[in-house]
Design goal:
- The longest helix is centred in the last third of the chain and has 18 residues.
- With 377 residues, this protein is α+β, with helices and mostly antiparallel strands.
- β1 and β2 form a beta hairpin.
- The chain has a domain of 77 residues.
């Protein structure tokens, strides 16, 4: 088996990095929460340990506070999710949220949490996304892989009989009933079958001969890619694990002992274009650093060593992750379907309906794609 990788590393949008002065950060996928069965099982099989982050993903102190009670948020989330069960593809999330929840403060917190999690403007979401709300406010233990989440991809790559071929982006896939030819800028590779696992934002540029079915091409093109950024800032002093969310800035921040230096790195996440614009991400970390210091003045930040990651600027991602469902392909099956006997699609955007946008979804999709090809052979 040959694995072709466009980057110089494995992991894609799961990227663990050691800061020059010490401190392990996750520049991409970070949180392993409830239901990540494939992730935990794969880690156990590879002898990789998971460790608790000291925070629960849904539990964030709101500043300025105190904000709605956790029980009110959960009740509101469940009411909105139940109401959305009958929503059509063109129903707006904002309208259903207003009908389901009378408390304006609860509505605002839930809308902020959903926008942040999906990294897509809340006003652009259809009502079916409200089904995610109970998960976003219910208690769930949060873990990371010891030594960095990217180590899972590295361990899988190490088990391959043939080393991963880096700096080898694929440009075209030609296929017939018997074989597949994969071509890049300076290579051609003939195979019995292949798994295509590239971000949805790049999939529209990959040439297929014969072309993909028209309905599938339209479905792929209709899937938006979210925009998100992460900020990591070393601190002079260690702090206890904690998570805060900014009411005005619509971003959240956390500390964890999983940083390898005893809780001396502050981390922050911002999702959705309007939020990143307000933080001035395109101009660098300065604006966000100022708002982080305002949100969390207790932290002694080493601002000059801040690391900003904006996935839209990454040429092999061009965004954070897919935003499904959509009007053209409500359940995501058209985009994820195998277009030919020897080709299977994988990636978080194919992990429909509940695991899109997650590390768990990417891993599950790989298992599913491999099973499809083995069954076809």
């Amino acid at each position: 088996m040959t694995v072709l990788e466009a980057r110089e590393r494995v992991g894609g949008r799961v990227w663990s990095e050691e800061l020059p002065g010490g401190g392990l950060i996750e520049r991409g996928g970070e949180f392993i929460t409830g239901g990540y069965d494939a992730t935990e099982e794969t880690a156990a099989r590879l002898g990789i340990r998971l460790e608790g982050m000291g925070i629960n993903y849904p539990h964030r102190e709101l500043r300025p506070g105190p904000g709605p009670a956790a029980s009110d948020l959960l009740a509101g989330a469940e009411a909105a999710a139940a109401a959305s069960a009958s929503a059509g593809a063109r129903a707006r999330a904002s309208a259903f949220l207003s009908e389901a929840i009378s408390d304006a403060e609860v509505r605002d917190v839930l809308a902020t949490r959903l926008q942040s999690a999906l990294a897509h403007p809340f006003d652009a979401l259809d009502a079916r996304f409200l089904v995610h709300l109970p998960y976003l406010v219910a208690a769930a233990e949060t873990k990371r892989i010891a030594g960095g989440n990217q180590s899972l991809a590295e361990a899988l790559a190490a088990r391959l009989a043939e080393p991963v071929r880096f700096a080898a982006p694929v440009r075209e896939i030609r296929h017939d009933s018997r074989s597949v030819r994969i071509s890049g800028d300076d290579f051609n590779l003939d195979a019995d079958a292949c798994v295509v696992a590239i971000p949805i934002a790049l999939l529209t540029e990959l040439r297929f001969d014969p072309p993909l079915p028209e309905a599938q091409t339209k479905a792929i093109a209709a899937i938006p890619t979210s925009r998100a950024a992460k900020l990591a800032v070393p601190m002079r002093d260690a702090v206890e694990p904690q998570a805060l969310m900014s009411r005005s800035g619509r971003f959240w921040a956390w500390t964890t002992p999983c940083d390898g230096v005893g809780g001396r790195v502050a981390n922050a996440w911002a999702g959705a274009e309007p939020v990143l614009a307000d933080l001035g991400v395109d101009a660098g970390p300065g604006g966000w650093l100022a708002k982080l210091a305002e949100l969390w003045p207790e932290l002694d930040l080493e601002r000059g060593r801040a690391v900003l990651t904006d996935w839209r600027a990454d040429p092999w991602a061009r965004g954070a992750y897919s935003v499904l469902p959509d009007v053209e392909d409500p359940d995501g099956t058209a985009a994820a379907a195998s277009p030919a006997p020897g080709i299977a699609f994988a990636g978080e955007h194919t992990a429909v309906p509940e695991w899109t946008g997650t590390m768990e979804g990417a891993l599950r999709s790989g298992f599913r794609a491999a099973e499809e090809l083995l069954a076809a052979s």
